[in-house]
Amino acid sequence: MDLGLKGRVAIVAAASKGLGRAVAAELGREGAQVAICARNAADLERAASSIRQATGNAIFWQALDVTDAARVQQFVDAVEKRFGRVDICVTNAGGPPAKTFLEISLEEWRAAVELTLLSAVYFAREVLPRMRKNKWGRLVTITSMAVKQPIDGLLLSNSIRAAVTGLARTLANEFGKDGITVNNVCPGYTLTERLDELAEKQARDASVPREKIFERWTSQIPLGRLARPEEFAALVTFLVSERASYINGTSITVDGGWVRSLL
Fold it and tell me: CA-based angle 60:39:141, to the nearest 5?
């Protein structure tokens, strides 16, 4: 299947590792010109080199903090200057701390809003006017299956990722007439460093071996296993393609069936 991504210019945030890196690599394999960002320059450079070797495509990268609106603007400007346009943007950020309500300080609430919600706003403000000018665009926000079924111990993620979903759904309404689709993709338990961190914390809190946490998660998933980042990346790549031109305003889980709701 030709996804029509050859020559398209894609931005992927928080792409030095995990889901972001998998998405950037998959887009590169489909022929897109990819620009990535993350905070850690060394990790980002390694990711860019790996993607370049795997796909044969040049990768543009800049180290930045996605909670810094001015740096996001500078990055998007640099991408457009390098490639001449911006067609696709995948917003992403590291997950907020895993804590319960009474453990969370007001400063942690503010930081989580900056990281999870406002970072998506900053990218959307920069890319949507450029996409509107070209009458074509794809914006995908990466959130979590927690927007459909809250996860115990992840109060910040449960709360603020739901706000990102509301943002994406409303942007889909506002920009659909401009040839721009906006969708939200909700990963489940996926084999990334973030999941390792969650497993370590839950194991400490419960005084059980780390393996027990993974066993418990796996037992909750109808497919009986955790996801690979590449499986998540495959859906995102389809959603930003020509083939997905009539998919707009959706929130799709990639969770092996963990969420039990009908919709």
Answer: 75
Of 164, 92, 178, 173, nearest to 131 by C-alpha is 178
Q: Which sign, positive or negative, has the C-alpha torsion 192, 190, 240, 31?
A: positive
Closest CA relative to residue 57, chosen from 36, 78, 87: 36
Quick one: 9-188+228-248 is in which CATH superfamily? NAD(P)-binding Rossmann-like Domain (3.40.50.720)
CA separation for the pair 230, 236 (Å, rounded): 10
Q: Are 175 and 132 in contact (CB under 8 A)?
A: yes
Q: Which of the pair, 189 or 55, is modelled with greater confidence?
A: 189
Residue ranges of domains in the chain: 9-188+228-248, 191-226
Whether the Cβ atoms of residue 165 and residue 157 lie closer than 8 Å to each other: no
Q: In which element (H, E) is residue 82 found?
A: helix 69-83
Question: Letter for the amino acid at 192?
Answer: T
Per-residue model confidence as pLDDT tens digits over 86-120:
999 999 998 898 989 999 999 999 999 999 999 99
The backbone torsions φ and ψ at residue 80, rounded to the nearest 5 degrees and listed phi first, read -65, -40
The region that residue 170 occupies, defined by phi over 0 for left and psi between -120 and 50 for alpha, beta otherwise, is alpha
> Tokens 């914006």 sit at which residue?
139
How many other CB atoms are there within 10 angstroms of residue 172's CB atom?
Answer: 19
C-alpha distances (whole Å) from 46 to each of 40, 85, 101, 137 are: 10, 25, 37, 28
